[in-house]
Amino acid sequence: MKPFAGSMSIPGWSRIYAGKVHDMYIPVDQQWHAGNETMLVVASDRISVQDRVVPTVIPGKGKLLTTLAMWWFERLDDIVHNHFTGAQVPAEVAGRAMIVRRLRMYPVECTVAGYMTDTMLDEYQKTGTVNGIELPAGLREGDRLPSPIFLPARKGAVEADDVDITFDEFSYIVGADAARLIRRISLAIYERGHEVCMETGIVLATCKLEFGSSADAGDHEIILADEVLTPDSATLWLKDDYVPGRSQTAMGKQFVRRWLASTGWDRNAGTPPPPLPHHLVTATLERYQTVVKMLTETK
Fold it and tell me: GO MF terms on file (predicted)?
């Protein structure tokens, strides 16, 4: 499969933003959209780990992300409306792009955690808390939490770190009413996703969500944006291999993060991540494909 690094020119569209994985375009005429607030979101094959873009792409990953995001949008629409409006996209990005509603995005990422992951464990062992939230003593890596917790972060730019924030800080950024509603929606998405994933043989340990609202004055409806419950935006473990108290079989980009950690790479050292070996690219793609198949092909 030919890799797609993104950042390409598309007739009829102007690229306005290149993110860590997704590129965003606006129409230059009326050919591809019905209204002035439409965007084209293209999922590249780039992979971002610990807020750094890895210099090796995973061929076909963007198409898998797009397929799964649209699948989840349909199954979560009774909880929250989303920005997806259509899949009739230019041929150059067929299968890896969506026509979406242009939103006023909240500059935050909303993580919900239902299990103790390796990235949460260090803070918990030192303080008994995760992002300031107190948790019971004695939890191990992989243990299910008493109840899911909401962990907001302020978004960083490309190649910049996201910054964990408290719920009070989150409320200050988005407004108190919006903060409470976003937290409630996020927890509901996680609960639905966890139920569906468990039925198909996957443990949904955490998920990362992004939201926006209409650019129209006075319209404050919360809209789910970006992607949702994909191997890029969620921590997914293989249920058959799940054993609390140890590292789990990672089915998303955590698999790549573990390899990077084994190389000694330090994201704070100012050096880019090393290229991924071919066998790791192949294994990562196979895990993404397995997740999509397990979810979308289950009766």
Answer: ATP binding; phosphoribosylaminoimidazolesuccinocarboxamide synthase activity
Residues sharing a CB contact under 8 Å with residue 103, sequence separation 6 or more, in sequence order? 83, 212, 213, 214, 215, 223, 225
8 A C-beta contact, residue 25 and residue 8: no
* pLDDT single digits (tens) 119-156: 999 999 999 999 999 999 999 999 999 999 999 999 87
Burial of 48 (0-12, 13-18, 19+ CB in 10 A): middle
13-102 architecture in CATH?
2-Layer Sandwich (3.30)
The Cα 297–Cα 45 span in angstroms is: 23
User: What dotted CATH number matches 104-241?
Assistant: 3.30.470.20
Q: For the chain, where do the domains classified as CATH 3.30.470.20 start and end?
A: 104-241
What residues does 99 pair with on adjacent strands?
A: 40, 86
